[in-house]
Amino acid sequence: MNTALRVGSLLLLAIAACHHTVAPPLDEVDNWRSTQSSCDFTFRAPPDLVRTPVQGIDSCVDRFRGTECEYDGGSGWYGSGLLSQESGQRNYVSEPVDLGGVEATLVSFEQDQDLGTTYVVGVEAALLDASDTAVSFIASCRTAQAREVATKVMLSVRVTL
User: Fold this and answer.
1) Is 54 among the domain residues?
2) If 119 and its partner were Cys, which of 1, 5, 38, 147 is the partner (CB 3.0–4.6 Å)?
């Protein structure tokens, strides 16, 4: 009986493995395209990302939507507030990053929403010496795995000011 249970378990695992699609490692995604934001930066994006209409008041704003994440970008005198999100956010992490020679901050955290958890990642660069401009790009994702992809998008940002 014990052997039959073990063989049955292995058979179920084999069947499940045949139906599971394994995503390629993020470093090997080669179908991403270079995308120009209207707000002084470029980035590499998965093919499902599309620009959606949005209108700013006193700053440049851009919005893109993908299957699992919504991306908001902007540039102007005022930052996004991303760097002040630490209080009250779960798993808040902030670290300095280099975006092609521009110093920036990469932030990630989780927010509880009415419909579940939102997984957030974003970058912000304050270009005080160059133009007194802040450039930010933030993704709000449905899953932690989607946020991993969005983190790669964030690290591909290049400021064009």
Assistant:
1) yes
2) 147
Q: What domain range includes position 141?
A: 29-159
Give the Cβ contact number of residue 56 at 10 Å. 13
For residues 68 and 142, the answer to whether their CB atoms sit within 8 Å is: yes
As a whole number of angstroms, the distance between CA 159 and CA 42 comes to: 7
Instruction: Give SS3 for 67.
Output: coil
Instruction: Tell which residue, 136, 150, 157, has the closest CA to residue 29.
Output: 150
- Amino acid at position 73, single letter: G
Residue 7 has pLDDT above 80, yes or no: no
pTM confidence score: 0.77
In the prediction, which pLDDT does 29 show?
60
| CATH number, domain with residue 60 | 3.40.1000.10
- Confidence label for 153 from pLDDT (cuts 50, 70 and 90): very high
Extract the tokens encoding 143.
Answer: 């899953």
